[in-house]
Amino acid sequence: MAGLNKVMLIGRIGKDPEVISFENGTKKVSFSLATSDNYRDKDGNWQEQTEWHNIVVWGTLANDIADKKRNYIKGDLLFVEGRIRTRQYKDNQEVTRYITDINAERLNMIMKAGQGNPAQVEHNTAPSYSKPAQDQPTSLPVQEGDDPPF
User: pTM of the predicted model, to two decimals?
Assistant: First the structure.
């Protein structure tokens, strides 16, 4: 049976994309992406937990970023779709180290850094996400007899 390796993230770019050009003309673009989750701690206070992801882009998409046809900068809110890849290497002390990357296959701008309203890019309209108010439920109620909304 075939497996499934699919990742979808919405987050903010943590550093301007870095472009590496190889001798054969291939380009690699990499940047960090921060995703945040909100939760209540044991005292009922809202907490935010941020995860950092290494995003790697190859092929036509990398060329578009390198050629500034897609101008992404630190702080932009992006939707990233791709696959998880783990690579390993040995450091100077011969200890094996592992790095997990997201190989992006699709990038969609949700909001440029500093803008107050989501932008419509590539014919996609993305919702803005905010921390729920303390008195609002964090999930959708499902009434008896209703199918879940997913």
Answer: 0.71
